[in-house]
Structures are given as C-alpha cells and as structure tokens.
Specification:
homodimer; Arc Repressor Mutant, subunit A; 3-stranded antiparallel β-sheet; 3-stranded mixed β-sheet; globular; DNA-binding
DNA sequence: TAAGGAGTGCAATGCCATTGCAAAGTTTAG
DNA sequence: CTAAACTTTGCAATGGCATTGCACTCCTTA
C-alpha cells in the first residue's frame, strides 16, 4: 500500500515526505472528497497549514482536484494516474445533503454541452445534490 | 419595467418593498449571476445584511437560485417565472476565469446522468470554467 | 560540513457569510 | 383612529474557513 502511494507521488514528481504520504493515504482510504477540516480530523496531529499547502502542491501536480460542492468548504479528491484535469476528464460529484459526504462518481462521465459562440471551456464541474445510499 | 419586477415578486408571494425591488432589478439588469459583494457595490447605499436577507427570502420563494462557481463567493441569479428549482430545471453556469463573470446559460439544458443505485438526486449544478466571448 | 533550499508548524490575518438586537415601518384588531 | 403585533431594515458583532508571514527544522549538495 505504501508503495502504491509513493509511486503515485513519484509519477507526478512530488517528493514523498511523511506528511504527503499521510495526506494522500487519507484521501485514498476515504474514497471520497475530503475538506481541509476533515483531513485535519483524520490526521490527528498534523498541522492545518501543512495539509493546506500539501494539497496545494498536489493540485499543481495534478494529484488531486478541487471539488466545489456548495457546502462552503472546498473538498479534495484524488485524480486518476493518467488525469490531467482537462475538460474531458472531469467527472460527476455527488453531495449527500444529509451526511455531507461528497462522492466522486468517476464511472459517470459527464457530457460537455455546447456553449455559446466565443466561449472557451477549460474545466467542468458537475455536482448533483441529494441523498446517498447510506442515508436512504 | 418596475411593473415587471413587482409582478415577479407578487407571483411568488413576496411583498414588494423598496429594497427587494432594487435587488431584483439589479439582478435582472446585469443578466448574470452576482455575488453579495457585487450587489453591495451596485446598490451603493444598501446595507450588506439587508441584501443578504433579501436574497435568502428570494431563494426560499424560488425567485433566485444560488450558483456555486468555486470563486469562493456564492452568486445569485434570477429564476424563470415558472421555475421551481427542481432537478430538471437546473441549467448550465459558465465562469469566466479572466473577468470573474458568471453566466447563466439557460439555453443549454443539462443532461442528468445516471447515478448509482440507492442515490437520489435533488439538485444539479453544472459549472464550466473558461473564458467568455468578451475576454477572447 | 557548511550553505541553500524545501518542508513544516505556529500565529496572525483577512475575507465573506451569518446572526443578535434594536429601530423603523407596516399591517391588523379593537 | 390607535395601540399591539409583526415585518423589514441597519448596525455591530461573531464565526468559519482559507491563506499568508515568519521562523525553525530537515534534507540535499557542493
């Protein structure tokens, strides 16, 4: 497991420090998009700022993507190994309004709609709000 | 024009106070999603709190909907008269990362993707980021 | 092994949404 | 017509979360 995580970092040219391994592991374990707060809770003794900066680094290296779920907090989810966070690679996110869990529904690719002339699309973020299977 | 706005309010059983007329007019004039800050700037002498609460009322009465564009600020856009903010009525939003304008692309209906078993969708919010025609 | 750079932690700041409370305005009952 | 009740508004304060500044530590490299 630790190897998998280290490889993921190496693949994106991010030095595998202790903190980075922890943050990435937490994100992989939870299998859902996590907010800074949630990560802080999971990684009990880690500093908020460090996590924040780690996530920033991860974003720049396409290791994670931000999810805007309208909860007021930005959440973070792990990218696929071959992801470049381009338009076509954006997938669906689902926010359960009961338990505040944000799911990355990678298997539900989203259609890029036609946009008006003169507009250029770069990123897509499709969010569905509702209730998840655990809450129903 | 004033009549149009008053009618919109009446239609949703919202008392047409001075502030409410102003806020709704501003939103209609601009033809794009506005943040609280932007509204505060447009309505020079209006109090931030009042605008906030006005928008809250509007939301409850389906006069406006919130737009989460990941800019960190919630934006607000006017609903169509027959809108109930239900899943099917959600439309596309476009954030220009250059001028920070958020457009409501009402003519680009969005497809509701199939979601996993056990999940129930309630609202949809589809955001495209890129650059708009004015900035290209 | 000393110097430079990267990573980390603490404390402080700042931005924006939201709430408490009191004043002003509006409606309603008597 | 008027007092009571409710609604709307404005000011001030609070609170949550993201972000930054600075100093310390660790790791790399010449």
């Amino acid at each position: 497991m630790k190897d998998v995580i280290e490889n993921k970092l190496k693949l994106r040219s991010v030095k595998p420090t202790a903190m980075r391994l922890l943050v990435l592991q937490a994100l992989l374990n939870e299998k859902k998009a996590l907010s800074l707060n949630e990560l802080e809770t999971i990684l009990e003794h880690a500093d908020r700022t460090t996590i924040f900066r780690t996530l920033k680094t991860f974003q720049e290296k396409f290791l994670v993507h931000r999810v805007y779920d309208g909860s007021g907090m930005v959440k973070y989810a792990v990218c696929d190994d071959d992801c470049n966070c381009s338009l076509q690679e954006n997938h669906l996110h689902f926010l359960c309004t009961k338990c505040s869990t944000t799911y990355c529904l990678k298997d539900a690719p989203i259609a890029i709609p036609t946009i008006p002339k003169g507009f250029k699309a770069k990123y897509a973020n499709y969010l569905i709000e509702g209730s998840c299977s655990s809450c129903n």
